[in-house]
Amino acid sequence: MDIDGFPRQFARTRRFTLGVPRDITVSPDGDRVLFLRSESGVDPRAHLWMYEGGQERILAGPTTAYATDRDVRVVAHLLDGSLWTVRTDGGGPPRRIPTAGPVRDPRPSPDGTLIAYVARGALRVVGTDGTGDRPLAVPESADITYGLPDHTAVESIGRTRGHWWSPDGDALLVARVDTSGVERRWLSDPSDPGRVPRSVPYPAAGTVNAVTSLHLMTVAGGHTPVQLPHRAPAKDAPTGSWGLAFEYVVSADWQSAGPVIGLQTRDQKTMWVLRADPATGAVEPLARQRDEDWIEYPPGAPLHTAAGMLVLPEVRGDERTIRLGDVLAPAGLHVRAVLGSVGERVLFTASEEPTEEHVWAYEAGRGFERLTHTPGVHTATAGGDTLVVDSRTLDGHTVTVLRDGEPQGRIAVLAQQPLVTPRPAHLPLGERKLRGRLHLPSWYEPGMPRLPVLLSPYAGPGMQIVTKANGWHTAVCQWYAEHGFAVLATDGRGTPGRGVRWQRAVVGDRLGPVLDDQIDGLHAAAEHCDALDLGRVGIRGWSFSGYLAAGAVLHRPDVFHAAVAGAPPTDRRLYDTYWEERYLGHPDLEPLDYERSSLLPVAGNLTRPLMLVHGLADENVAPAHTLRLSAALVAAGRPHRVLLLPGVGHMVTGEGVADTLLTLELDFLKSSLGAGAGAGPGIRPDAPPVSSGPARPRS
């Protein structure tokens, strides 16, 4: 293992994401597969590729995004804000299309004759031959955009689109976003004091959201507002509802069933699915759901099949499932995403065991069928009789093309293999059977001195890192292990894939249950493996886990002896409406929940080494979170370290920054915990094996 070269490799490969196929599209006839991928594991420029007849070739690029017509013949793609088109049927080289400004989100019409795009907040259309550029909707002020999603939709809900073509290509469903009432944040670069600060609308908990309305616009110039309801009736709302206004457009699409829209109330307890009349804008309900805590739609839902069968999420006991027409998914499945449909065949992913995700299919008359079987995390894209399965397992990362269920070949994964080989032991930990992953040094043998322990979790809602798949998380954990740590990652309460009650255990308290699970997991791991020195325990993390790391040394210095907290959301009132109010309610109504979940009131508790890190260009978790905690620590007379990263956003991936940060964290933890000292027995003979042999990490 080249542990010295790993940090630079980690940075150069952007966490081993370069060279990985992404944004896969399969043509309806199953003949062509499009995807984005760079030409190597260190090339940051993605190209548009096509897999056809068992061969790959570059269609265009470099590019950052693309979209196609219905038949995947015409492709629109972006390069530095410029609009280009290319055909997949040999229609010549890529062609630049003149536009009215820098382009965002270009999307060809279903018949491939027009492209809708956004420039300077206006929704426009242009012919694929470059003629007829014209606006369909022009913003009335600088606070308004047409055809784009708002901050909350992108960052918290997961809706990344703001306009949708009709099946006939003669009209669009268009989002209008008004941020005039949203609080502004000013992002500046203190290292360049001459640069004017940038204004960013950010809806913090308890403040005003952007206003999103929907409009039906014809390419001939017609404009009809969709008559969306403003509020849910109080009689139809669940007990404890406090925000009945429909402030969130969770989903939208326009398929054969017409424009279908998912609306959610401010408190997220009520969800309506509506169908709009394309001529009048009037709406009719397709489904109404409510929940005492919150309604959660998996990605891809709601969905209509070609014949109009509606696929909706549903809670059955403790399971998040889906209803496909009149049929529920099999008992024991936790549905993770709806992948789409081909005809009346619906594809989705689900977990029976939380460390695995598998691809399933359902079709009336054929029932339910699990399509993947190797332990790991799988997803898929389909078209015609072709299925492209993206699989991440402990043996690596593969993208397999199947036709009529038979393998036809693979799309190459060009990502580099990490210079360290993960050697995790997957452990069920404690009474709650917490899923944990323990890494010991490859050189460690029973009888050697005990090792300082480093917890490296995420542990927040929306993401798991303890799965039957190797990736950058496992590689980083092993790198720390090779430097003399026993590294433990644990997914506790609040993480997805283990049922409704598991996710909702953090309602009213964002930190307490999560921290308890990390401590329980630590002690259970020490019972499995005598190599862990509980007298020297550190914790590191970023974003939610940065918040967890700082909270660990502030609340439980008896357990945790040092922490590195990156981009921690220390004051939950500063984070966004959708994410915080789901768990803590409105801050004016539940102030104690926000106080309980804030780190600022307990800053005076710090007695352990703490290193705070934050990118000054972070639009997701504002640098104010770290600066306010640091100010509270200074006021309390508590020494700590602060590392600010000019020009760096929420994700630290750049060479010269990501690699240096890893090294600085390592030095801090070594000096704080003393790697390499101590004594004690090694792994007990009856403990689970640390590794069943070297595992090839996923790319």
Brief synopsis:
This protein is of the alpha+beta class and 699 residues long.
Model description:
- The structure is a single chain.
- The protein is an alpha+beta fold and 699 residues long.
- Among the domains are: 229-297, no CATH class; 424-673, Alpha/Beta hydrolase fold, catalytic domain (Rossmann fold).
- Strand 6 (74-79) and strand 7 form a beta hairpin.
- The longest helix is centred in the C-terminal third of the chain and has 17 residues, at 512-528.
- It is globular.
- It starts with 5 loop residues before the first helix and ends in a 26-residue tail after the last helix.
- The relative contact order is 0.10.
- The model is unreliable at 676-699 (pLDDT under 50).
Highlighted features:
699 residues; Rossmann fold; globular; single chain; 8-stranded mixed sheet; alpha+beta; 10 helices; disordered C terminus
User: What is the share of helical residues?
Assistant: 10-25%
Total strand segments: 43
Largest sheet: 8 strands, mixed
Instruction: Give unreliable regions as ranges.
Output: 676-699
Strands of the widest sheet, in order across it, are 36-37-39-38-40-41-42-43
Strand content: 35-45%
Going by CATH, the homologous superfamily of one domain would be Alpha/Beta hydrolase fold, catalytic domain
Mean pLDDT: 94
CATH architecture of one domain: 3-Layer(aba) Sandwich
